[in-house]
Amino acid sequence: MNKYEAMRKLHPNIITIRGDIAYDENEQIVSYDEVAVQAVVDANAYKEARAKAYAPLAEQLDYIYHNGIEAWKTDMINPVKTKYPKGSA
To answer: What is the pLDDT of residues 42-54, one digit of tens each?
Structure first.
């Protein structure tokens, strides 16, 4: 999740963002807490790290076909989840 997604998550009334200034539907400036926005970004960083670390889907499906679901979880999924636990960067 990037900064702009976090801003919109915290403030659903944000319609437009130009630079670091957020606006509502009436083009009024929406104030936001930078620290809170960064906290949301940081709390979701593990998702992006995991997505990059997982093998491509076709490779995972092939692994499941040849080795079964439990082996796939043990060999391909759990190591990534261990390396990038929820809440980690």
So the answer is: 999 999 999 999 9
